[in-house]
Amino acid sequence: MATVSVKRSVTALATSAAALLALATPALASDVSAQAINLRTPFDCGQVWNANTRTNHNPQLSVDFQRSDANNKNVRSSAAGKVVTRRDLGNTSYGRYLVIDHGGGWQTLYAHLNSFNVSLGQSVSTGTIIGKVGSTGGSTGPHLHYEQKLNGAVQRVVLNGKAVVYYGNTSITSSTGC
Ligand SMILES: [Zn+2]
């Protein structure tokens, strides 16, 4: 009899745990995909930037980070990872740009850089200085073109858990490395 009663309570526990999981799974699944990695604002602690999004941007979900004295500001890695692309496209497209792979299918891209502070294949930490803001490639003024990609597809940008406005402007104060 004692054995039977233990079995019953274990079964009851398993059943309620399964019910809870079934309830929680849809919400959890979307939270996990959006927050699998905490990508941080790619600038010095305390610096304020305007994150601009617009429907005619290419790729459309990219962000242009702007401020009046943007030129040569530090660009910092949004998370730990490895530099998988370091290229100079000259006067076209991204100009000097970097891609950092963060694992789990996540990559971030930083374009129009004046200069690079990392080499191809280098491992970086969250907030490592990877380059300087510039206006290289098809850019008309100093700013940082920035993308967050999951499995190769550009995503709506989320910085330290805060979603950037689509389409419009979001004022963001960097807390990276604070
Ligand atoms: Zn851009």
From TrEMBL:
Superkingdom of source: Bacteria
**Pfam families linked to this entry:** Peptidase_M23
UniProt-listed Enzyme Commission number(s): 3.4.24.-
| M23ase beta-sheet core domain sequence ranges | 70-152
- SUPFAM superfamilies per record: Duplicated hybrid motif
Q: Enzyme class, one word? A: hydrolase
Transmembrane residue ranges:
none
- Keywords, A to Z? Hydrolase, Signal
Instruction: Identify a single GO molecular function assigned to this protein.
Output: hydrolase activity
Annotated signal sequence is 1-29
Q: Which PANTHER family does the protein's record reference?
A: L-ALA--D-GLU ENDOPEPTIDASE, PEPTIDASE-RELATED
Q: What is this protein called?
A: M23 family metallopeptidase
Species this chain originates from = Allokutzneria oryzae
